[in-house]
Amino acid sequence: MLTHLDSQGRAAMVDVTDKPLTSREAVAEARVRMLPATLRLIVEGGHAKGDVFAVARIAGIQAAKQTHTLIPLCHPLLLSRVAVELVAEGEDSVRIRATCRVSGPTGVEMEALTAASVAALTIYDMCKAVDRGMCIESVRLLEKSGGASGHYVAP
Protein backbone atom coordinates (compact mmCIF):
# COMPACT_ATOMS: atom_id res chain seq x y z
CA MET A 1 0.00 0.00 0.00
CA LEU A 2 1.24 3.49 -0.83
CA THR A 3 1.07 6.02 1.95
CA HIS A 4 2.80 9.22 2.92
CA LEU A 5 2.90 8.13 6.57
CA ASP A 6 5.58 6.04 8.22
CA SER A 7 4.92 3.39 10.89
CA GLN A 8 4.75 6.12 13.57
CA GLY A 9 2.17 8.15 11.60
CA ARG A 10 4.67 10.82 10.49
CA ALA A 11 4.86 12.24 6.98
CA ALA A 12 7.32 10.30 4.82
CA MET A 13 8.21 9.83 1.17
CA VAL A 14 6.57 6.76 -0.38
CA ASP A 15 9.04 3.90 -0.91
CA VAL A 16 8.92 3.00 -4.60
CA THR A 17 11.96 0.71 -4.51
CA ASP A 18 10.04 -2.42 -5.50
CA LYS A 19 7.69 -0.80 -8.02
CA PRO A 20 8.33 -1.73 -11.66
CA LEU A 21 9.63 0.85 -14.13
CA THR A 22 6.86 1.74 -16.55
CA SER A 23 6.34 4.40 -19.17
CA ARG A 24 4.21 7.17 -17.68
CA GLU A 25 2.81 10.41 -19.06
CA ALA A 26 0.70 13.20 -17.59
CA VAL A 27 -0.93 16.20 -19.20
CA ALA A 28 -2.10 19.20 -17.17
CA GLU A 29 -3.52 22.58 -18.06
CA ALA A 30 -3.98 26.03 -16.63
CA ARG A 31 -5.72 29.14 -17.93
CA VAL A 32 -4.87 32.78 -17.45
CA ARG A 33 -7.66 35.32 -17.98
CA MET A 34 -6.68 38.90 -18.69
CA LEU A 35 -7.83 42.09 -20.31
CA PRO A 36 -8.18 41.83 -24.10
CA ALA A 37 -5.55 44.59 -24.46
CA THR A 38 -3.07 42.52 -22.43
CA LEU A 39 -3.58 39.47 -24.62
CA ARG A 40 -3.15 41.59 -27.76
CA LEU A 41 0.10 42.97 -26.35
CA ILE A 42 1.39 39.42 -25.78
CA VAL A 43 0.24 38.00 -29.12
CA GLU A 44 1.49 40.96 -31.17
CA GLY A 45 4.91 40.77 -29.49
CA GLY A 46 4.73 44.32 -28.19
CA HIS A 47 5.49 43.60 -24.56
CA ALA A 48 8.50 45.54 -23.25
CA LYS A 49 9.76 42.45 -21.39
CA GLY A 50 9.99 40.37 -24.56
CA ASP A 51 8.33 37.17 -25.76
CA VAL A 52 5.98 36.28 -22.90
CA PHE A 53 5.10 32.84 -24.29
CA ALA A 54 8.76 31.86 -24.79
CA VAL A 55 9.71 32.86 -21.25
CA ALA A 56 6.64 31.11 -19.76
CA ARG A 57 7.44 27.94 -21.76
CA ILE A 58 11.01 27.82 -20.41
CA ALA A 59 9.81 28.57 -16.86
CA GLY A 60 7.31 25.70 -17.05
CA ILE A 61 9.96 23.27 -18.30
CA GLN A 62 12.40 24.31 -15.58
CA ALA A 63 9.68 24.01 -12.92
CA ALA A 64 8.78 20.47 -14.00
CA LYS A 65 12.41 19.47 -13.60
CA GLN A 66 12.48 20.95 -10.07
CA THR A 67 9.11 19.70 -8.78
CA HIS A 68 10.76 17.52 -6.14
CA THR A 69 12.36 20.63 -4.62
CA LEU A 70 9.02 22.49 -4.52
CA ILE A 71 6.49 19.86 -3.43
CA PRO A 72 7.28 18.00 -0.20
CA LEU A 73 7.56 14.22 -0.52
CA CYS A 74 7.74 14.20 -4.35
CA HIS A 75 10.35 11.90 -5.84
CA PRO A 76 13.08 13.36 -8.04
CA LEU A 77 12.41 12.07 -11.56
CA LEU A 78 14.58 11.81 -14.62
CA LEU A 79 12.06 13.26 -17.05
CA SER A 80 12.40 12.11 -20.65
CA ARG A 81 10.08 14.79 -22.06
CA VAL A 82 8.59 18.07 -20.92
CA ALA A 83 6.54 20.16 -23.35
CA VAL A 84 4.69 23.36 -22.53
CA GLU A 85 2.28 24.77 -25.10
CA LEU A 86 0.69 28.20 -24.78
CA VAL A 87 -2.26 29.22 -26.94
CA ALA A 88 -4.28 32.42 -26.98
CA GLU A 89 -7.98 31.61 -26.72
CA GLY A 90 -10.74 34.05 -27.44
CA GLU A 91 -9.96 37.66 -26.72
CA ASP A 92 -9.00 37.36 -23.07
CA SER A 93 -7.28 34.11 -22.14
CA VAL A 94 -4.26 31.91 -22.57
CA ARG A 95 -4.49 28.13 -22.28
CA ILE A 96 -1.35 26.37 -21.06
CA ARG A 97 -0.91 22.66 -21.64
CA ALA A 98 2.02 20.84 -20.05
CA THR A 99 3.01 17.28 -20.92
CA CYS A 100 5.57 15.30 -18.91
CA ARG A 101 6.90 11.83 -19.65
CA VAL A 102 9.09 9.43 -17.68
CA SER A 103 10.03 5.79 -17.49
CA GLY A 104 10.09 5.10 -13.80
CA PRO A 105 8.42 3.69 -10.70
CA THR A 106 6.18 6.69 -10.00
CA GLY A 107 3.98 9.08 -11.94
CA VAL A 108 4.51 12.55 -13.35
CA GLU A 109 1.22 14.23 -12.49
CA MET A 110 2.83 16.69 -10.08
CA GLU A 111 5.48 17.64 -12.65
CA ALA A 112 2.84 18.41 -15.29
CA LEU A 113 0.72 20.38 -12.82
CA THR A 114 3.77 22.31 -11.61
CA ALA A 115 4.84 23.12 -15.18
CA ALA A 116 1.39 24.49 -16.06
CA SER A 117 1.15 26.46 -12.81
CA VAL A 118 4.59 28.05 -13.08
CA ALA A 119 4.04 28.95 -16.75
CA ALA A 120 0.82 30.71 -15.68
CA LEU A 121 2.58 32.49 -12.82
CA THR A 122 5.28 33.62 -15.25
CA ILE A 123 2.68 35.19 -17.53
CA TYR A 124 1.25 36.97 -14.51
CA ASP A 125 4.68 38.17 -13.41
CA MET A 126 5.62 39.47 -16.83
CA CYS A 127 2.29 41.25 -17.38
CA LYS A 128 1.29 42.45 -13.92
CA ALA A 129 2.45 46.00 -14.59
CA VAL A 130 -0.19 46.36 -17.31
CA ASP A 131 -2.92 44.10 -15.85
CA ARG A 132 -3.01 43.34 -12.12
CA GLY A 133 -6.49 41.83 -12.48
CA MET A 134 -5.31 38.73 -14.34
CA CYS A 135 -6.73 35.49 -12.98
CA ILE A 136 -5.03 32.10 -12.99
CA GLU A 137 -7.70 29.42 -13.06
CA SER A 138 -8.55 25.84 -13.90
CA VAL A 139 -5.22 24.25 -13.02
CA ARG A 140 -6.04 20.57 -13.44
CA LEU A 141 -4.86 17.18 -14.57
CA LEU A 142 -6.24 16.37 -18.03
CA GLU A 143 -4.81 12.92 -18.59
CA LYS A 144 -2.50 10.38 -16.98
CA SER A 145 -1.30 7.07 -18.36
CA GLY A 146 0.97 4.30 -17.13
CA GLY A 147 1.52 2.77 -13.74
CA ALA A 148 -0.66 0.58 -11.56
CA SER A 149 -3.57 3.01 -11.33
CA GLY A 150 -4.12 2.87 -15.09
CA HIS A 151 -5.31 5.49 -17.53
CA TYR A 152 -7.17 8.61 -16.40
CA VAL A 153 -8.88 11.18 -18.61
CA ALA A 154 -10.57 14.18 -17.03
CA PRO A 155 -14.32 14.42 -17.64
Secondary structure layout:
Layout (H helix, E strand, L loop, with lengths): L21 E12 L2 H8 L8 H14 L1 H4 L10 E9 L3 E12 L4 H19 L7 E11 L6 E2 L2
Antiparallel strand pairs: 1-3, 1-4, 2-3, 4-5
Pfam families: MoaC
Keywords: Lyase, Molybdenum cofactor biosynthesis
Protein name: Cyclic pyranopterin monophosphate synthase
Describe, in plain words, how this protein is organized in 3D.
The structure is a single chain. The chain has 155 residues and is α+β, with helices and mostly antiparallel strands. The protein has a single domain, classed as Molybdopterin cofactor biosynthesis C (MoaC) domain (Alpha-Beta Plaits). Helices cover 29% and strands 30% of the residues. The protein is built from four helices and five strands. Strands 2-3-1-4-5 form a five-stranded antiparallel beta sheet, with helices on one face. The longest helix is centred in the last third of the chain and has 19 residues, at 109-127. The mean pLDDT is 91. Homohexamer; trimer of dimers. Its EC number is 4.6.1.17. Catalyzes the conversion of (8S)-3',8-cyclo-7,8-dihydroguanosine 5'-triphosphate to cyclic pyranopterin monophosphate (cPMP).
